[in-house]
Specification:
The protein has about 260 residues and is of the alpha/beta class. Helices cover about 50% and strands about 15% of the residues. Helix 6 (about 190-200) crosses helix 7 (about 205-215).
Length: about 260
């Protein structure tokens, strides 16, 4: 194949689905990895209908062996492997005093563990293929600054920024770049759930919950998944060949560094 090959985790909906579609439009063969086969198959069917090269895979990023198997399967299917987007994650809305060992452990297994396993699997495959590659991780605006009720989620997204910087230094010798993207308030099923839960905790309506996150956006609109996909498209392209260890905010102007 002449196409470059990318694997996107959490590709069944929201930001992950938008990233997969954008990378397809950019000319990539795309593997979609998610926990619900029907969801990734639905995204795959859309790409196939547009004459794209696509592979739907089911699995859990918290399970290291399943991530490695997905990367290997992707490489076998398309004959190469160039980019991984470690997008999958969960976002519990838990006030600090309500955090339990179970909530903390599960969120870390998926958000932090899934990112580390993706980095490991991609790096192994790039070396096997004897070329460099790009690793792109999902952090968050909540990984740049604290947000009420997001202690657990935010802590994992801060961690992903650190993992990104560390891995970038370790893997640069193999011409592997590692960067992250940090979305703000994106119109996705996950964001809807977060806003609903925050509003419920405060005894307020859903619209109030969403406004708590949206009120400080300089551009005065919520992000669409496609906004984030555009940022990932850049990180996956040759234009970003000289960038590594960076975490790019794509939040409409909420946090300024």
């Amino acid at each position: 194949m002449n196409k470059k090959v990318a694997l996107v985790t959490g590709a069944g909906q929201g930001i992950g689905a938008a990233i997969a579609w954008r990378l397809h439009q950019d000319g990539f063969a795309v593997a979609l990895f998610g926990r619900t086969l029907s969801k990734v198959e639905q995204v795959a069917e859309k790409i196939q209908a547009d004459h794209g090269s696509v592979l739907a895979l089911v699995g859990d990023v918290a399970e290291r062996d399943e991530v490695f198997a997905a990367v290997e399967r992707t490489s076998q299917q398309f004959g190469d492997f160039n980019v991984i987007v470690n997008n999958a994650g969960v976002a519990p809305t838990t006030p600090i005093e309500d955090v339990t060992p179970e909530i903390l452990a599960q969120t870390e297994r998926i958000n932090v563990g899934g990112t580390i396993w993706g980095i490991q699997a991609a790096a192994k495959q790039f070396r096997k293929l004897q070329h460099g590659g790009k690793i792109i991780n999902a952090s968050s605006q909540a990984g740049m600054t604290g947000n009420p009720n997001l202690t657990v989620y935010g802590s994992t997204k801060f961690a992903i920024r650190g993992i990104t910087e560390t891995a970038a230094k370790e893997l640069a010798v193999d011409n592997i770049t590692v960067n992250a993207y940090c979305p703000g308030i994106v119109k996705t099923p996950m964001m809807t759930d977060i806003a609903r839960n925050v509003a419920k905790e405060a005894g307020k309506p859903f619209e109030w919950g969403m406004q708590q996150f949206a009120k400080d956006i300089a551009l005065k609109r919520l992000s669409e998944p496609e906004d984030v996909a555009g940022c990932v498209s850049y990180l996956a392209s040759s234009d970003a060949d000289y960038m590594t260890g960076q975490s790019l905010l794509i939040d409409g102007g909420m946090v300024f560094n």
